[in-house]
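User: Can you predict the 3D structure for this chain?
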Amino acid sequence: MIDKIKDYIGEADAFTTENKEELEAFRIKFLSKKGILNEFFAEFKSVPNDQKKEFGQVINALKTAAEDKVKGIVELLESREESKGVFGDLTRSAEPVIIGSRHPISIVKNQIIDIFANIGFNVSEGPEIEDDWHNFTALNLPEYHPARDMQDTFFIQTNPDVLLRTHTSSVQVRYMENNKPPIRTISPGRVFRNEAISSRSHCIFHQVEGLYIDKDVSFADLKQTLLYFTKEMFGKSKIRLRPSYFPFTEPSAEIDIYWGLKTETDYRITKGTGWLEIGGCGMVDPNVLKNCDINPDEYNGFAFGVGVERIAMLLYQIGDIRMFYENDVRFLEQFKASI
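Assistant: Here is the predicted structure, written as structure tokens:
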């Protein structure tokens, strides 16, 4: 009898199938009320006392082997069905995919590019490591010019003629050197200035500068272009142009937008005035045109530049510019809906 049970244990261990019907037949044969195990348990009382211990151990071994076999095959078949259900059903709805977040600086920069693209401006780019000519001299800032002190510059120590660009106006110089009027381009990019880092300023920031060179361009054209931009970007049409000085434009002005004082963040970033400076502008100085081989007697134009961080702080009510550079995932995840 014990040998017969051991044969059944070997049969259970060797059993394998990928068919549910065959598995059910196996379960009925060994584990049902009328199955082999119950028959052996019923015969337990007729087994001699000296064999009952071994008989019971062998029966339990058969029960364990049969139950483990059924359980293992059931789990295998279910896992295959689940895999087929996930990857084989082309009609299933897509599972949510975790995506990254676009940086708010990139979001705002792309919005600015799209706005100016709608009125015919193309995009030009240039190197972040510049030479003195393109960053200063060609822009009416010759060596020892006092206006160079307006931009605390990071110079390359081994070569004083090489520096980190302080504005993307250097890209405009390169563009004018290689293209003839009419010119209508914007130059987005990162710039560097040796400034103290605070909640409102940083040594690294982003600009989008625009340049329009053609015949008979007026300051009124500049004003209307900026007004169009502020309406599209902010939905607001109240701006002011404050007289200012830039070596490469004449006349020059600072661009302010009236944002209001609705929140505490508005008070902080506008210093309680409701007005926020977002950039500078002016008519291109004739000397700059000459340096780029463009005849100032035939052509003139305007240039402007806006700070991307300032605009992003307004749009998203961010009170501290340093948050853009801390790489805090909790901060960046707030902009997933803006991608």
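Residues 2-87 form one domain. The mean pLDDT is 84.
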